[in-house]
């Protein structure tokens, strides 16, 4: 979990590394960054290097969002609750944000989120409220990272790919309902003009008796 001030620096492209005590081996080359209890971005790990504390520089600290090496060392000491020997090894993980979760693509059926990312978020934040079908899709997407393979493994052919897609959109809606993904009213209104699914979602969200009028006509 990233502190709020660092989350802002990450989204602004000013924090491009994270330094961890000890030798850390990332499990994946893509990670989801969380702050204040919710995901804020997806990042790709570009490089991993190992140094001793005595080899760290002010430049290393600034890339990690600190104003000086001493500030970084003080924070590491507080986080890990230990004295820092100069020969202790640290891991410097360099990353690049590839998807900000506050940037929504209204032209994409998944709003700019990859199916695999939707599955990762659902597995973390919706685990206790997933239906059997939703859990099945999530498990397959986590394993295969691909709609095509997921559909074949689940249904034996691609004829039911539309089922997989609908479930993924349903998971997105649940993530929005839970506040994991925040989409403002204006974006929802744009989505409703181009997608039946999101039109129905908006209608449910603001009430079936709404008199809201869209640019392309009144909500049916």
Give a written overview of the molecule:
With 220 residues, the chain is of the alpha+beta class. It has two domains: 4-100, Sulfate adenylyltransferase (Roll); 115-218, no CATH class. The protein is built from nine helices and six strands; from the N terminus they run αβββααβααααααββ. β2 and β3 (38-52) form a beta hairpin. α5 packs across α6 (147-155). The radius of gyration is 21 Å and the shape is elongated.
Shape: elongated
Cα end-to-end separation: 42 Å
Largest sheet: 4 strands, antiparallel
Give the percentage of residues in beta strands.
15-25%
Unreliable stretches, pLDDT < 50, 5 or more residues? 208-220
Biggest sheet strand order reads 1-4-3-2
Average pLDDT number: 91
The proportion of residues forming helix, as a percent range, comes to: 40-55%
Number of domains: 2
Structure annotation, total helices: 9
Whole-angstrom Rg: 21 Å
**Strands, total number:** 6
Structural class, from helix and strand content? alpha+beta
Order of helices and strands: HEEEHHEHHHHHHEE
In brief:
The protein is an alpha+beta fold and 220 residues long. The protein has helices spanning 4-11, 58-63, 69-80, 115-125, 132-144, 147-155, 161-177, 185-194, 196-206; strands at residues 17-21, 30-35, 38-52, 89-100, 213-214, 217-218.
């Amino acid at each position: 979990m990233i502190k709020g001030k660092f989350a802002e620096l990450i989204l602004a492209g000013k924090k491009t590394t994270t330094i961890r005590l000890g030798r850390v081996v990332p499990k994946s080359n893509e990670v989801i960054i969380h702050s204040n209890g919710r995901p804020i971005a997806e990042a790709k790990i570009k490089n991993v290097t190992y140094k001793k504390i005595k080899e760290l520089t002010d430049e290393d600290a600034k890339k990690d969002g600190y104003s000086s090496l001493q500030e970084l060392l003080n924070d590491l000491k507080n986080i890990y609750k230990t004295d820092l020997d100069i020969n202790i090894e640290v891991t410097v993980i360099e990353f690049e944000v590839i998807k900000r979760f506050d940037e929504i693509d209204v032209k994409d059926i998944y709003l700019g989120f990859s199916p695999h990312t939707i599955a990762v978020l659902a597995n973390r934040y919706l685990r206790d409220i997933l239906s059997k079908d939703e859990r099945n899709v999530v498990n397959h997407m986590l394993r295969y990272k691909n709609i095509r393979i997921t559909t074949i493994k689940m249904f034996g052919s691609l004829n039911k790919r539309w089922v997989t897609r609908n479930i993924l959109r349903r998971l997105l809606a649940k993530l929005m309902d839970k506040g994991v993904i925040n989409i403002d009213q204006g974006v929802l209104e744009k989505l409703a003009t181009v997608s039946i699914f999101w039109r129905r979602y908006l209608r449910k969200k603001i009430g079936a008796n709404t008199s809201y009028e869209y640019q392309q006509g009144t909500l049916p």
